[in-house]
Design goal:
The chain has 315 residues and is of the alpha/beta class. Helices cover 35% and strands 24% of the residues.
């Protein structure tokens, strides 16, 4: 049996902890280093998961010869630059969504990946969530025809805080982060590129300097539609709900849960891992098998081209 892959994880926030939970379920991988600016938080996380090495900077982690691959769970504005840094150091990299906050940044990561020949993947987790994967298989074999994907992505983020309500020094974005999940998923599930795309946004928040409400409409060549509502003003359940409307069938997916149009639970196979674990497993499998992963940087780049097009409509 081959030796375990040695993994470094950068970022000790909410999503970093979710990755560590997922990694604890996977065989033949070992997290050997964790990095983050918040020293006490990083040390607590390392102690909880039995990680021996702790550091503050990605550069220090990259100086460890034993590290084979990096998972980046850092602030969005750092993603593209840090992904290139990992690839140039000879490390495979999994970047949390979004790959970048601009098309220029996303294309820079792709060029670096192509030059290095290493595995570079972005955490477009909806491709891997159990319900979405179950529906993808049905769509692939012609058992379900997607006519419309109706999506609500709603949070209450009127202050600059993360998913745990903790303050942060960078600003999240409805378009480049939260819309990226749905734009990529819609093209992935239909197997088609979007031909028509429209975006509208509400007033720009005076302090956060971004719109807290947005509406996006997409259409593929065959006529499949996607309607996406995004808000940081929502009071109520947080997160994303995906309503798949087909020819007489409807399914509603929320992360790794799936129900029919009337709310009856769909029993999914026990063998289906949760989204983050399945995604991380695909990353490691692609490294071992020396192949392009699902959600490779190359395969998700059309999403970022479309986000760039939508952003230009909002200017």
């Amino acid at each position: 049996m081959s030796k375990p892959l040695h993994i470094g994880l950068v970022g000790a926030g909410a999503i970093g902890a979710q990755h560590l939970d997922a990694l604890s379920m996977l065989a033949h991988v070992k997290v050997v280093s964790v990095a983050g600016k918040q020293t006490s938080q990083v040390e607590e996380l390392a102690a909880r998961y039995g990680i021996e090495h702790v550091c503050a900077e990605l550069s220090e982690m990259l100086s460890l010869r034993e590290v084979d691959a990096i998972i980046l769970c850092t602030p969005t504005p750092l993603h593209a630059r840090q992904a290139v840094q990992c690839l140039e150091s000879g490390r495979h990299v999994l970047v949390e969504i979004p790959l970048a906050d601009s098309l220029v940044g996303a294309e820079a990561v792709l060029r670096s990946q192509q030059g290095s020949g290493l595995v570079a993947m972005c955490a477009h987790t909806r491709r891997f969530n159990s319900g979405h994967r179950w529906l993808h298989e049905r769509i692939d074999r012609g058992a379900f025809v997607l006519r419309q994907l109706d999506v609500q992505t709603h949070f209450l983020r009127r202050n600059n805080t993360n998913a745990l309500g903790q303050p942060r020094n960078w600003t999240d974005h409805l378009l480049w982060h939260h819309a990226a999940h749905t734009v990529d998923l819609f093209e992935y599930q239909t197997g088609e590129r979007v031909q028509t795309a429209h975006a509208l946004q509400g007033p720009v928040h005076p302090e956060l300097r971004l719109a807290l409400d947005m509406s996006i409409q997409l259409r593929t060549r065959s006529g499949a539609l996607c309607t996406l509502s995004l808000s940081f003003n929502n009071q109520g359940p947080y997160g994303s709900t995906f309503r798949y409307i087909g020819d007489g069938e409807t399914f509603v997916a929320r992360y790794d849960e799936l129900v029919d149009g009337f709310g009856a639970r769909i029993e999914l196979p026990d063998s289906l891992l949760g989204g983050i674990a399945a995604q991380d497993q695909e990353f490691f499998a692609a490294i071992r098998e020396k192949r392009e992963p699902n959600a490779s940087v190359a395969s998700v780049l059309p999403c970022y081209r479309l986000l760039d097009e939508l952003e230009r409509q909002l200017i």
